[in-house]
Amino acid sequence: MTAAAISPDSVRRAHLAGRRALIVDDNATNRAVLHHQLERWGMRDREATGGAEALRTLLAAAAAGDPFDAALLDMQMPGMDGLELARAIRKEPALEATRLIMLTSLGAGPTATETREAGISECLLKPVRQSRLDDSLTRNLGEMEPSERRAPVAAAPVPELSPLRILLAEDNLVNQKVALALLRKLGYLADVVGDGRAAVVAQLRQPYDVILMDCQMPELEGYEATRQIRAHESSINGSLPSRAVIIALTAHALEGEREKCLAAGMDDFLTKPVSVQALGAALVRASKAIACGLVGLMVATDATGNLRFGASAGQASFTQATGHRLAFGIPIAHPK
Q: Is a pLDDT exceeding 70 seen at residue 332?
């Protein structure tokens, strides 16, 4: 092709080809539209359905030496919205080179001050026309070195994060902050909802591995929210490995409270105030149950972090999943 025949579109695509972009949106249709647009320009994209998942993905890519050049953030998402996610990204030294482009609806976007302070490169109004997205990415990435030729960002070591997707259902703002701080100490992130009804909606929209469920919430208590989630899980497949591990958070240490939680369909039980050690142990138990394919067979736990399974769970299920026989009512450690 001669110089005279080179079109502006070809130059744009040359700038964008091979770039990495993360699409963050809880709406599957929106993600699909953006994916096809980026793919057309030769970009390498991945998708995340929420803020916590996006942050995990960005950090893992940076640690692997193949960071994302850009992140397309939906402003309105459940749990952590786009602005909160942008602020969280900018707190991570390993992600300082990632350009942030906010996608927002009319009247729902951040202010100019919020945009600047959160380190957002540009805001685009939805629905985003292909030409506008092309222009924005070209402006923001045109002068950057492609990620595959860029040296990894020198930063503090990124902690090894668990792959667990966690939802925190808690109506008290102080308790939310405490729980999120404890999770961060353990290397976890979580999306947050403020009532039981929102917890059900969030789980149906994008299933979580673990739900930390406050038992006393407005709109819908944790007990009933759990029953509705379990009913939905049973209606779609009835297979135990697809169940979320639901951990009760309750201020009541009364006798019978644990049994009430388990009867509602919860898998584990923590009494407030929750210590980092107790929360960490509960998440280890959840990971063991998920790894064994025994979510839904947990009926109690002990102080050592081992799992207990009930006789009703069935010998065959445990043996098939682990290759070991189950001694009913006896703590069984996850086989190595």
A: no
Q: Any idea what the Cα angle at residue 235 is, between residues 328 and 211, rounded to 5°?
A: 65
How far does Cα 34 stand from its chain's mean position? 20
Q: Among 120-124, 213-217, 232-236, 260-264, which is the least confidently predicted range?
A: 232-236
**What residues form DSSP beta bridges with 300?**
308
Q: What is the DSSP string of 193-229?
A: ESSHHHHHHHHHHS--SEEEEESS-SSS-HHHHHHHH
Confirm or reject CATH 3.40.50.2300 for domain 3-149, answering yes or no: yes
Read off the tokens for 107: 């009247």
Q: Which pLDDT score is estimated for 132?
A: 86
> pLDDT (tens digit, 9 = 90+) per residue, 178-209?
888 888 888 788 889 999 999 999 898 888 89
| Topology match between the domains 3-149 and 166-322 | yes
Residue found by looking up tokens 């996006």 in the block? 54
CA atoms within 13 Å, Cβ hemisphere of 189: 20
Q: Where are the beta strands (DSSP E) in the chain?
A: 20-24, 44-48, 70-74, 99-104, 122-125, 166-169, 191-193, 210-214, 245-250, 268-271, 298-301, 307-309
What ranges do the domains of the chain cover? Answer: 3-149, 166-322
- At 326 the three-state DSSP class reads coil
Burial of 112 by CB count in 10 Å (0-12 exposed, 13-18 middle, 19+ buried)?
Answer: exposed
Q: For the full predicted model, state whether its pTM sits above 0.85.
A: no
Q: Which CATH class is domain 166-322?
A: alpha beta
| Secondary structure element (H or E) that encloses residue 87, with its range | helix 82-90
